[in-house]
Amino acid sequence: MGFGDLKTPAGLKVLNDFLADKSYIEGFVPSQADVVVFEALSAAPPADLCHALRWYNHIKSYQSEKLSLPGVKKALGQYGPAGVEDTTSADSKDDDDDIDLFGSDDDEESEEAKRLKEERLAAYNAKKAKKPALIAKSSILLDVKPWDDETDMTKLEECVRSIQMDGLLWGSSKLVPVGYGIKKLQIQCVVEDDKVGVDQLEEEITAFEDYVQSMDVAAFNKI
């Protein structure tokens, strides 16, 4: 269950598939869960496992501050596909325990239950009444250059699009000739300014060093 042996190709494949739609092992920020899984790897994942490699390079940048990351370390086997499923099941069981399908012999709710219901209703109404804050966004056009004309541009684009962050949305793309049979990837993205920066994007994209030679900003516009 979980990822299995992360020092084997099979274990790395499970990790790569697990991270296809996730930025981190648990939650939306780096945590001790990422540290546990990172330390279970003997080396960086191969380039063809782009989701796992993108995650590995990102967590590697936190090594100097890994002890301060949130969360509590658990056994490696408790992370991964099985861990997600088990947690969901446990949550569902807890929810089921809270529901009395057959009612109670006592028709009157306890004072504690009434108070809790009123507090939840008040919190819901307060949240609903709040107007959403204006979110500053930017539209960025990136030029991603390969090493040579033999670089697999389909795989290069797949690696770029595998980068997922809160506040990042990939858009359209095209290949643009630059000379000598070499083409660069020109790809559009929309970012939330407070969450995603150009330097962060460059760090993530150039981490795929088997495919990417460099990245430049071709256009930057506030939305």
Automatic annotation (TrEMBL):
It holds the Pfam family EF-1_beta_acid. Signal peptide: none annotated. EF-1 is composed of 4 subunits: alpha, beta (alpha subunit of the eEF1B subcomplex), delta (beta subunit of the eEF1B subcomplex), and gamma (gamma subunit of the eEF1B subcomplex). Interacts with elongation factor EEF1A1. Residues 137-223 form the Translation elongation factor EF1B beta/delta subunit guanine nucleotide exchange domain. One of its GO terms (molecular function) is translation elongation factor activity. Residues 80-112 are annotated as: Disordered. It comes from Paramormyrops kingsleyae. SUPFAM superfamilies: eEF-1beta-like, GST C-terminal domain-like. This is Elongation factor 1-beta. Residues 93-111 have a biased composition (Acidic residues). CDD domains: EF1B, GST_C_eEF1b_like.
